[in-house]
Design goal:
The protein has 264 residues and is an alpha+beta fold. 45% of the residues lie in helices and 14% in strands. The protein has a 5-stranded mixed β-sheet with strand order 5-4-3-6-7. The radius of gyration is 18 Å and the shape is globular. The protein starts with a helix and ends in a 6-residue tail after the last helix.
């Protein structure tokens, strides 16, 4: 637990707002790479999710819904908002959320576990990691080219944005897909390179997945090698893993896992 998530969240928010403020009206309404959502819907979603998580931190009962149906309902309810209203709400929610979530980065609150709808239960400090991931991935893979429709240039992803994003995804592997453990037929080493590099062992026991620091490559039946930036794309099924992951070792065990993983 640290302020890395807050720093990453600020950086990711700055990227999103910079691009959003540069869009013309036609670009706002262009279909994004998030199926069924326009670029406007993707930006609107950020404000919606910030509202939901802030309410949960303040102790309000979470909606009786999974995260994806909730996203659809909330975004659909704001499609008649004009772009200025959407942007103003996102900026307002970001300012409030960063203040609130900063308080969750220090003990004792940082380690308090809280359910995040159907994503699983996480320590409160991880909420900032989640938003760093959410904004970074939606912007880089759903809004911006080459996968998205908008042609804007941003610097390559760096440690500030990738460390919290990767932490969120690794923390979600044991929690987001209840059936994922049945597709992990042997322990796998995940070797992530580039900014925020990590080496972890993904294992399963008694129907539950664990993600732990890798002590030795000999622990794993196969090693999956990818950059941290590409990990955001293939682990969320936004990009095909076969173009981005190198497998060393048991091809069958690795392929079975990689064909199934689809994080949020």
């Amino acid at each position: 637990m640290s302020l890395a998530g807050i720093s990453g969240m600020r950086a990711a928010a700055g990227d999103l707002i910079e691009v959003a403020r540069s869009l013309n009206e036609g670009e706002w309404h262009t279909p994004s790479a998030a199926v069924g959502w326009s670029v406007q819907d993707v930006v609107s979603h950020v404000g919606c999710l910030l509202e939901v998580l802030q309410a949960a931190v303040r102790g309000e009962a979470p909606p009786d819904s999974g995260i994806e149906p909730l996203n659809e309902v909330m975004v659909a309810g704001r499609r008649d908002w004009d772009t200025a209203r959407i942007l103003n709400n996102v900026e307002k929610q970001l300012e409030q959320a960063i203040t609130l979530f900063t308080q969750l980065q220090e003990p004792p609150m940082a380690s308090v576990e809280t359910p995040m709808l159907d994503l699983g239960t996480y320590p409160l400090h991880a909420i900032a990691d989640m938003f760093t991931f959410d904004m970074t991935t939606h912007l880089r893979y759903d809004i911006l080219a080459p996968r998205g429709p908008i042609d804007r240039q941003l610097p390559p992803l760096d440690e500030e944005r990738l460390v919290p994003s990767v932490s969120w995804l690794l923390g979600g592997i044991p929690k987001m897909q209840p059936d994922l453990a049945s597709h992990l037929i042997a322990p796998l080493a995940l070797h992530l390179t580039g900014p925020g590099a990590r080496d972890v062992l993904i294992g399963a026991q008694s129907g539950a997945i664990s993600v732990d620091p890798l002590r030795s490559p000999d622990e794993a039946a196969a090693t999956l090698t990818s950059t941290t930036a590409d990990f955001l794309g293939w682990s969320t099924a936004r990009q095909p893993w076969r173009a981005l992951v190198t497998i060393g070792g048991d091809q069958s065990a690795a392929t079975t896992f990689l064909d199934t993983i689809n994080l949020i």
